[in-house]
Design goal:
Helix content is 77%, strand content 0%. It is built from 16 helices and no strands. The two termini are 27 Å apart. The relative contact order is 0.16.
């Protein structure tokens, strides 16, 4: 792939996507600092994940209708504007309640941005859809890995630092996107109803896959939301750990997942991967910090596989248009993450519960039919709308 040949608006959108994806792990290294600075309990602090994801989950049902009505650029720029306002106000929050509420606004903006960023990149990239997908996945992986690192570096000064730094970077992305992205065309756009994504879940295979993804995503966010409280390391140490985790996610999702799916099939690959994640969850439950650190980083490799494989399966079944099926799938998928972030601090053994959820996902996926291969592997990755 020739990266130098990509037009300017592709690079601008990819840069904004990196910053947006940073929001997932940005607060991870500063959870303890926030708890101390705002005199909050672990249960209150983990709401920073659940409010962010909860609003993003619901907003995913509206993104298709918004894009159809207002156009991709207006939807994308509007999402960026919400993120800038929310992150700037986060840096000045005076209570944990204010911070949780502002993270919800952040999640709303992120939903509208992420839902349209990929379509902009695909429409503008040279070298075809595969080149655009590689750029998008590179932005995703870079954001997941840089987020915790930025949170650690700025968070070592103050827990407000990462929010202020993100606001500045997002403001730059907003100005660039508003200035250089092509205007929305005035041609008639297809109408997408608000309940169409939910109707798509009437397909049994898509429903099982989406529920399985929700169970796995609950385990995924158990790692993100609970590990810092078990490790009780400083912001820099936690940031470096999750930087390694993010790099593993990026490498695995782009390079390993397609090869594994081609070798043994998507169904076998996803079941084996989710069971491997269950084993890692049980290892994290062992009271050993060195073992927990290793398990977190290794879990990034398995998460990279599952992020791509789950979406690949979801996008290979059903007769609904891909954006509609993707919205329904992502609605259930991230609902699992929101619920996990809400209740994880109330569980006696969060990692053990996460392991059980992964086993449940494997059992559910076993009832899916054998791989249909309706969508080429390289196309599958394009449907990934993360996270959020």
């Amino acid at each position: 792939m020739n990266f130098k040949a990509q037009p300017k608006q592709v690079w601008i959108t990819a840069f904004a996507a990196v910053i947006a994806f940073m929001g997932i792990g940005l607060v991870d290294p500063i959870l303890l600092s926030i708890a101390e600075g705002l005199h909050a309990t672990p249960a209150q602090v983990t709401l920073l994940f659940s409010s962010y994801l909860g609003v993003q989950v619901v907003a995913m049902l509206f993104t298709g209708a918004a894009t159809a009505r207002f156009g991709a650029k207006r939807t994308l720029v509007g999402g960026l504007a919400l993120i800038v306002v929310a992150t700037l106000l986060c840096s000045a929050a005076g209570s944990i309640g204010q911070l949780v509420g502002l993270r919800a606004v952040w999640g709303l903006g992120n939903a509208f941005f992420i839902a349209t960023a990929l379509s902009v990149i695909v429409g503008a990239a040279s070298g075809g859809q595969k080149a655009a997908i590689l750029l998008y996945e590179a932005a995703l992986g870079l954001g997941l890995s840089v987020g915790p690192l930025l949170g650690a570096l700025l968070g070592s000064i103050s827990w407000r630092g990462p929010f202020l730094g993100t606001a500045v970077l997002m403001a730059v992305a907003l100005i660039l996107c508003a200035t250089f992205l092509a205007r929305d065309s005035h041609q008639e756009r297809p109408k997408i109803g608000l309940v169409d994504p939910l109707k798509a879940l009437r397909n049994p295979t898509l429903l099982r896959t989406s529920i399985g993804a929700a169970l796995y995503t609950a385990a995924f966010f158990t790692v993100l939301a609970w590990s810092p409280f078990v490790l009780r390391f400083g912001a820099v140490e936690i940031g470096l750990i999750f930087f390694g985790w993010g790099v593993c996610v990026a490498v695995s999702s782009v390079f390993l997942a397609p090869r594994l799916a081609d070798r043994i099939g998507e169904k076998r690959a996803i079941i084996a991967s989710v069971l491997a994640f269950a084993v890692l969850m049980l290892l994290m439950a062992v009271p050993s910090k060195p073992l927990l650190v290793v398990a977190i980083i290794v879990s990034g490799l398995v998460s990279g596989l599952l992020n791509t494989l789950f979406t690949g399966t979801a996008m290979s079944v059903g007769d609904a248009p891909r954006p509609v099926a993707s919205a329904g799938y992502n609605f259930l998928r991230w609902l699992g993450g929101a619920l996990a972030a809400t209740f994880v601090s109330h569980l006696a053994q969060p990692f053990v519960v996460a392991a059980v959820l992964c086993v449940g996902a494997a059992v559910l996926l076993a009832f899916n039919r054998t791989d249909t291969r309706e969508v080429p592997t390289e196309v599958v990755i394009a449907s990934e709308q993360l996270v959020g």
